[in-house]
Amino acid sequence: MLETVLIHLLATLTQVQADPQPDVSTSESNDRAPLIRHIVRPRETVEQLAYRYKVHPRHILRSNKLDDGDTLESGETLRLRSSVAPPPRQRMTHIVQEGDTWVSIARAHGAESTDLRAYNLKTVGRTLEPGERVLVWADPTLKAAYEHDQPPTGPAGQVRPGAFSIGPPQEGRLINGVRIPKSDQYDLRYPNSAWGTTLAVRNTVIACHDFRDITDYRGDLRIGTMSRKRGGPVGGHKSHQSGRDLDIRLPLRETVPQRLSPRPHRVDWVATWELIKAFARTGAVIRVFLDYKRQRRLVKAARAAGATPEELDDLVQWPRGSRANLGLVRHSHGHTGHIHIRFACAPHEVECVE
Asked: What does the pLDDT average to over 133-141?
């Protein structure tokens, strides 16, 4: 489907003049991944290309006799071997329209606004004027996803497209981040750290509304940290750097003052089970972290609520050991008062690392 979209996109671009430069060639080998020759685009880095081609940065350095810390030169050719070869960035000229901003142009082309400004530093002023020509090195996969975006129905449909992740949750960045919208269905505890990818934020809204719709739980649903607007380190968290991690306080029993801390005897474990199922139903969650001892209480409540053994095996690691590579819910030290939701990379996020 995506290949069809890309072909259609490149054939029907409007208000954008493309300068296609096919530069990726592969040669099959029986015992090695295909050889790829990549022509470096402006401002691309070894780390970024390692994410893009799903290889270790050392592979790129060794294959091209580069030293750690070397700056790539635009136009130079790199050799690497990889089983994935997303289409390279393409040089395009965008004709500025009324209301365009650096951010909106970057978002529509799968680019970063700081890069966009750098591309045009010597030719375009800080204020854009209609009719000006802006150079863009566009990511065709991200651009196609933006142009063919089909927002979901309901409140999640108000979440704009174009927010994407680069790198892994522990070292990545968030580009064109979108914030979780305010709602009476949940409480945003840290609005300045409530930014994420389009996929993550849309499915957060979907899951929270779904949870409220199918349960009679009326206690507080407190959403904690997601990511900063541009990702990177936040607070004392090791992850939460690429817009795909979300903390939610364990729901308290409605008879308990909602200001209290979520100690095990105060938690509504049935509501917690339903909340986890709501996120699992989105199909966008790859992991939920919860302390292994707390999982025992979760399973007990789920069984009382009618969960089947098969359902529990699919969703919860307990009682198969805290190191068992089983279940959506996994042990992680320190996750005793909240669940940590980790969302997948969207198919079009070519430099996102799970």
From this structure: 97
